[in-house]
């Protein structure tokens, strides 16, 4: 029996409109990421980022905004202010019960969404002013430094950050996929084409040999396959919902289902948190002449064993920390108990919560080690293969996760379309006569 063939997404009017709207928004986003802020020499900022590397605060931030910060564009803030505000309220929900209650209510979620927007504007304004001061500190980057430049730049970058937030919300509501995630996704994959040209240049000059390039391509395919596998992998906890009398002679049949616990429930956030901490010594040493800070920065160089050990510990810690924030076994067990469901062999209530927490703790460890391997991979590849690009880390995890989610949403749209067509046009034979459904 062959699997049903899904139709071409561009032949479905509703899905075609969503895809075209999404592509238009992404095009606007990438165009804005190439418009330089007035009064700034973009070449000076590019030279600075080329010299300082990617393992600093500015380098990591520049990755998530698709190089817009290194070019000093009007979209230099990217979607990061909104992401930071969202994470703030997510952590607040785990700390304060009042915020947690709001997150569970429809009206409460609307309030938190509005508060997230307000905080995004505040963070964007603060970061925009900081970037204006940073640009002034670069030699020859600003044509006319002073208060006029700072205010103009801060206003321009703040408006750009708010516009990106609005653009992401429009994609989520009227397009396909999660708008915020897609903006980061396209910021990351935009670097693929320049990296390809640089690779051919390395081949031409002899800096990279063909056998090494073939080995690298095979390794990249294996890593992507393994990343997809771990991203979708989950431990299924079986649950049983017993038969129940609904009233008026109606009976709800018993159901068997499962709770999927992902091996990598925390996603890319543990690497982001770990990077934010481990790059502090190098960032501080860049703007300081204190000998202790420079020695500390040398100790935490990406090729040192201290860096690897500290990075691993931070990623494992933040994996457990963030998983505990986003996943509450107590709430899950209570909801299961309200529905009359139970895990076979486990008592409902606190015993079920303990069991789920135990399983989650066990599968989180291999997930954290996987994140560590992905995070360290760009450093190893740069050292072993001398390639002109970074492969792995947060960029690979985000690209794989967003691509899988977007494809899944497209498939859901096409499957629903098929069912709608069947219900409207399908025919079934009944007692020798045709009846339209």
Any overview of this molecule?
Mean pLDDT is 79; it is low at 1-5 and 426-437. Helix 6 packs antiparallel against helix 7. A hairpin with a 2-residue loop joins strand 5 (427-430) and strand 6 (433-436). It contains 17 helices and 6 strands. With 437 residues, the chain is mainly α. The chain folds into 2 domains: 9-190, SecY subunit domain (Preprotein translocase SecY subunit); 215-391, Preprotein translocase SecY subunit (Orthogonal Bundle). The radius of gyration is 26 Å and the shape is globular. 68% of the residues lie in helices and 7% in strands. The chain has a two-stranded antiparallel sheet with strand order 1-4. The protein has a two-stranded antiparallel sheet with strand order 2-3.
Structure described in brief:
The protein is mostly helical and 437 residues long.
């Amino acid at each position: 029996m062959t699997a049903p063939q899904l139709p071409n997404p561009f032949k479905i009017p509703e899905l075609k409109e969503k895809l075209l709207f999404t592509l238009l928004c992404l095009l606007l986003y990438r165009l804005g990421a190439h418009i330089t802020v007035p009064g700034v020499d973009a070449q000076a900022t590019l030279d600075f980022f080329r010299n300082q590397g990617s393992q600093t605060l500015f380098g990591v931030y520049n990755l998530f905004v698709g190089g817009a910060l290194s070019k000093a564009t009007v979209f230099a803030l990217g979607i990061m202010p909104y992401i930071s505000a969202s994470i703030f309220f997510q952590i607040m929900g785990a700390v304060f019960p009042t915020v947690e209650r709001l997150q569970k209510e429809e009206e409460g979620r609307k309030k938190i969404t509005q508060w997230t927007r307000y905080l995004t504007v505040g963070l964007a304004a603060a970061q925009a002013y900081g970037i204006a001061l940073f640009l002034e500190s670069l030699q020859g980057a600003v044509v006319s430094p002073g208060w006029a430049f700072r205010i103009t730049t801060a206003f321009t970058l703040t408006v750009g950050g708010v516009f990106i937030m609005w653009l992401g919300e429009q994609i989520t509501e009227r397009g396909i996929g999660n708008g915020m995630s897609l903006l980061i996704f396209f910021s990351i994959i935009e670097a693929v084409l320049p990296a390809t040209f640089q690779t051919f240049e390395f081949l031409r000059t002899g800096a990279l040999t063909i056998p090494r390039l073939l080995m690298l391509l095979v390794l990249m395919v294996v890593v992507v396959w393994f990343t997809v596998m771990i991203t979708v992998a989950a431990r299924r906890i079986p649950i049983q919902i017993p038969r129940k009398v609904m009233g008026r002679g109606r009976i709800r049949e018993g159901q068997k289902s499962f709770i999927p616990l992902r091996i990598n429930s925390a996603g890319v956030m543990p690497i982001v948190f770990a990077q934010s901490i481990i790059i502090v010594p190098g960032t501080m040493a860049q703007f300081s002449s204190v000998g202790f800070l420079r020695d500390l920065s040398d100790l935490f160089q990406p090729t040192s064993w201290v860096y690897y050990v500290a990075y691993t510990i931070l990623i494992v810690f933040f994996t457990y920390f963030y998983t505990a924030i986003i996943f509450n076994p107590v709430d899950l067990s209570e909801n299961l108990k309200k529905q009359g469901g139970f895990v076979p062999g486990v008592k409902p209530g606190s015993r079920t919560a303990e069991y789920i927490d135990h399983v989650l703790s066990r599968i989180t460890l291999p997930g954290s080690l996987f994140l560590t391997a992905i995070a360290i991979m760009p450093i190893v590849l740069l050292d072993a293969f001398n390639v002109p690009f970074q492969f792995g880390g947060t960029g690979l995890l985000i690209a794989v996760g967003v691509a899988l989610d977007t494809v899944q949403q497209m498939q859901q749209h096409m499957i629903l379309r098929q069912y709608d067509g069947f219900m409207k046009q399908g025919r079934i034979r009944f007692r020798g006569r045709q009846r339209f459904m």
